[in-house]
């Protein structure tokens, strides 16, 4: 039975930047998707697995990209978005996400007829990632003509519906849908859940009420509605249901369900920050360091600030205080405390635009990257013992793009991959935390693909991890996570999920995965 508080209407992730930002994709307000039927569960063909060469500069991948079109149709506030693990204020920054994070050097977006994707532009031999668990990735398939690691789906812009913030909500308030392009990043990922066109919350409420009427519950009807609405739309459904029928929809649904199916439905209905605050609360009390790393080391500054606020509001406790008192290990604790400050450098919208026009090197500080690489060497391999504070200061503060440049400079000057350096200097939870960050700097969807693989492999299923990753990434980058999973393990994510789940629990997860 799920223990997290449900029915909370607050907790959406706040915006990083005000409106009229030409760095964001064009997302007309309250419209359908012209190139794809909104209810068909569109999934783009998988791109080639990107290979990263530690001696290769980002600039060689980007070149001088085309200018990103102005997006004057980006909807007005509020921008409560469930996604965007990228960062601001950085020379070369990606974001925590690039925590869960952003892929290293995606080529600049270009417009494709009908929203079709281009294939990767380079075909390098396979190499071993220097990231989490040092997984060996298979040889990518032969490339097709064209270039571009990530698609720019102009016809169906990626969506990241977020939970709205309702502190002073007026009757009839309906939050705006958002684009799921990662805030302050160069990547455009796709979720598998997009806002349905011609959304009618009143009709959905009537259908949900009918599904729960009388003896028994029509679970398939619940899944058809709940798994195919964005988080913003689910918040509207909750509001309309209580307005129409005078009772809380989530409590009503929860009373009809049980087990992991109930936990999944509650997770879908909860506001993103509230759900992740609950997940952190549970993980801190149960000593589940993996879940703590997964959340705090893969989110944007805006998301972490929202989680801090939701944690305080829900539990009347300070998240940093709880970490300080419940986490063992000085170095691991230091990494987490740094993360909850939500103060990592992130690319500004102006830097994003500049990088698209002039290349990624235009927003990277190479001198700083070389200085940081030297500082890391002197703090680790270049001395007896390890200066843990120097590692923490650089990893916690620098943007993801800047960190990637630092890793390149370290490899170039000292001839060693940064992940191997971490393995030789640290151990336990601290080592795992740094490897999470390194993996997300290089390719965040790969980190989440590996998290799911571990959840469904071996004896038993880590259901809470499986639910959390699928639900929280469903409107951000789950399409890319599915692609990485196929490339890394030579089988589909849906196949492995279906093999470890059953019944309505299986059906709702597969409905999210599309």
Automatic annotation (TrEMBL):
SUPFAM superfamilies per UniProt: Annexin
Major subcellular site: host cell
Species in which this protein is naturally found: Adineta steineri
Protein's name in the database: Annexin
Keyword Metal-binding carried by entry: yes
Compositionally biased tracts (Low complexity): 64-74
Function: Involved in reproduction of the worm. Involved in host-parasite interaction. Delivered into the host cell by means of parasite exosomes. Binds to acidic phospholipid membranes in a calcium-dependent manner in vitro. Causes aggregation of liposomes in the presence of calcium, but not in its absence. Likely to promote membrane fusion. May provide structural integrity within the tegument.
Domain notes per entry: A pair of annexin repeats may form one binding site for calcium and phospholipid.
Molecular function as annotated in GO: calcium ion binding; calcium-dependent phospholipid binding; phosphatidylserine binding
Entry's localization field: Host cell; Secreted, Extracellular exosome; Tegument
Family listed: Belongs to the annexin family.
């Amino acid at each position: 039975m799920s223990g997290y508080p449900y029915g909370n209407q607050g907790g959406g992730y706040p915006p990083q930047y005000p409106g009229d930002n030409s760095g964001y994709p064009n997302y007309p307000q309250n419209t359908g998707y012209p190139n794809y039927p909104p209810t068909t569960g569109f999934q783009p063909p998988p791109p080639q697995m990107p290979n990263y060469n530690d001696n290769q500069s980002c600039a060689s991948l980007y070149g001088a990209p085309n200018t990103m079109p102005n997006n004057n149709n980006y909807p007005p506030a509020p921008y409560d978005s469930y996604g965007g693990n990228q960062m601001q204020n950085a020379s070369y920054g990606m974001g925590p996400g690039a925590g869960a994070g952003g892929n290293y050097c995606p080529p600049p977006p270009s417009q494709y007829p009908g929203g079709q994707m281009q294939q990767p532009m380079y075909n390098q031999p396979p190499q071993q990632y220097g990231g989490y668990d040092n997984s060996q990735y298979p040889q990518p398939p032969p490339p097709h003509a064209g270039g571009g690691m990530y698609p720019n789906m102009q016809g169906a812009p990626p969506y990241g519906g977020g939970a709205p913030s309702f502190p002073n909500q007026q009757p009839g308030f309906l939050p705006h849908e958002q684009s799921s392009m990662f805030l302050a990043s160069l990547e455009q990922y796709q979720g598998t859940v997009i806002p349905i066109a011609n959304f009618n919350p009143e009709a959905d409420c009537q259908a949900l009420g009918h599904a729960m009427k009388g003896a028994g519950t029509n679970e398939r009807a619940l899944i058809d509605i709940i798994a195919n609405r964005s988080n913003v739309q689910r918040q509207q459904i909750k509001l309309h249901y209580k307005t129409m029928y005078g009772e809380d929809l989530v409590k009503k649904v929860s009373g009809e369900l049980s087990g992991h199916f109930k936990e999944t439905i509650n997770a879908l209905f909860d506001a993103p920050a509230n759900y992740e605050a609950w997940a952190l609360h549970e993980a801190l009390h149960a000593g589940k360091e993996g879940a703590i790393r997964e959340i705090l080391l893969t989110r944007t500054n805006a998301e972490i600030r929202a989680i801090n606020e939701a944690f305080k509001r829900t539990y009347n406790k300070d998240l940093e205080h709880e970490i300080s008192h419940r986490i063992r290990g000085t170095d691991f604790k230091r990494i987490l405390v740094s993360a909850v400050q939500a103060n990592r450098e992130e690319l500004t919208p102006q830097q994003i635009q500049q990088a698209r026009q002039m290349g990624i090197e235009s927003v990277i500080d190479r001198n700083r990257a070389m200085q940081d690489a030297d500082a890391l060497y002197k703090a680790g391999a270049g001395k007896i013992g390890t200066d843990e504070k120097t590692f923490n200061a650089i990893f916690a503060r620098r943007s993801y793009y800047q960190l990637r440049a630092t890793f390149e400079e370290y490899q170039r000057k000292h001839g060693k991959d940064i992940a191997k350096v971490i393995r030789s200097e640290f151990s336990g939870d601290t080592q795992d935390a740094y490897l999470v960050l390194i993996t997300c700097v290089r390719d965040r969807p790969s980190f989440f693909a590996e998290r799911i693989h571990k959840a469904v492999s071996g004896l038993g299923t880590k259901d809470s991890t499986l639910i959390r990753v699928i639900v929280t990434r469903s409107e951000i980058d789950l399409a890319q996570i599915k692609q990485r999973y196929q490339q890394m393990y030579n089988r589909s994510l849906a196949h492995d999920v279906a093999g470890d789940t059953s019944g309505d629990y299986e059906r709702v997860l597969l409905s999210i995965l599309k």
